[in-house]
Design brief:
Elements: E1 2-5, E2 14-17, E3 21-25, H1 40-47, E4 52-57, H2 68-78, E5 82-86, H3 93-106, E6 112-116, E7 125-126, E8 133-139, E9 154-159, E10 165-168, H4 174-184, E11 192-194, H5 206-212, E12 216-219, H6 232-241, E13 244-247
Parallel strand pairs: 3-4, 4-5, 5-6, 10-11, 11-12, 12-13
Antiparallel strand pairs: 1-2, 2-3, 7-8, 8-9, 9-10
Helix pairs in contact: 2-3
């Protein structure tokens, strides 16, 4: 498993690649970046060369994760087979625009949507989306649908051939992590962690990291962003529990 966290500023765009398949997590591409970012089209052409893009995982509907510019690039160029996103819907102009892009693509190609919400703890496994990867979902849950951040999709991806594990986290915040740990503590261990909420101090807890025990933490945050991500307290916590902590620059 290879994980590419693209430098797109204050947002997230990740490509996960196996031997022959790949999928994308979130699609943020800023129109007028304040600082230099990666050329997304060129990066995708390089990473996905010789790979089949099987799907797209959207962790939430805020504009720095769910972005129509990135969505058009992914759907129109690479034509994945499915999209997975949390059932909770925050109605915004950005979300409406993105779903319009999805609907337009859906009219051209057979395309499966997975709108995820956990009602029972044993309904979280998606094993038929890929030949190379399995997906285990931990959030959102109806009991915690109190904000768009806490309704983020939290999902562990496991590569079948190697057992390598990558935990996708969106913008999940501390109170939701307490609930996730209560139900799924024994399942959260991973090799690589996508830092929740771009490294916010409200996005990670000592208890959740003690269950995850990641070797590597990847922080997708814009340089000199207005939110101050990543927070120094969160970075210190990551460093306490991980061997490697990296941030996009």
């Amino acid at each position: 498993m290879q994980i590419y966290t693209l430098n797109v500023g204050q947002g997230q765009f990740v490509v996960v690649s196996g031997n022959a398949e790949a999928f994308i997590v979130d699609t943020f591409v800023p129109l007028n970046p304040e600082v230099p970012i990666v050329n997304v089209k060129a990066a995708l052409a390089n990473i996905l060369n010789g790979k089949e893009l099987i799907g797209l995982v959207v962790t939430g509907f805020d504009a720095d994760h769910f972005n129509a510019v990135g969505m058009k690039i992914v759907l129109n160029k690479y034509r994945p087979n499915w999209i997975m996103y949390p059932k909770y819907f925050k109605k915004t102009a950005t979300a409406d625009e993105c779903f319009a892009v999805i609907a337009s693509f859906e009219s051209q190609k057979a395309f499966q949507r997975y709108s995820v919400s956990l009602s029972q703890n044993d309904t979280r496994f998606y094993t038929k989306l890929s030949k190379e990867f399995t997906f285990e979902v931990f959030s959102p849950h109806a009991a915690d649908m109190d904000s768009s951040n806490n309704c983020s999709l939290v999902c562990k991806v496991t590569e079948r051939s190697t057992g390598a594990e990558y935990l996708v986290t969106g913008d999940t915040e501390n109170d939701r992590w307490d609930s996730i740990v209560r139900y799924f503590a024994n399942s959260l261990e991973c090799d690589v962690l996508a830092a929740p909420h771009h490294g916010s101090k409200n996005g990670i807890t000592e208890g959740s990291l003690s269950c995850m025990l990641p070797d590597t933490v990847l922080i997708s945050a814009g340089v000199r962003n207005k939110y101050g991500h990543p927070d120094i307290e969160a970075v210190r916590l990551f460093q306490k529990h991980s061997n490697n902590v990296y941030q996009t620059f």
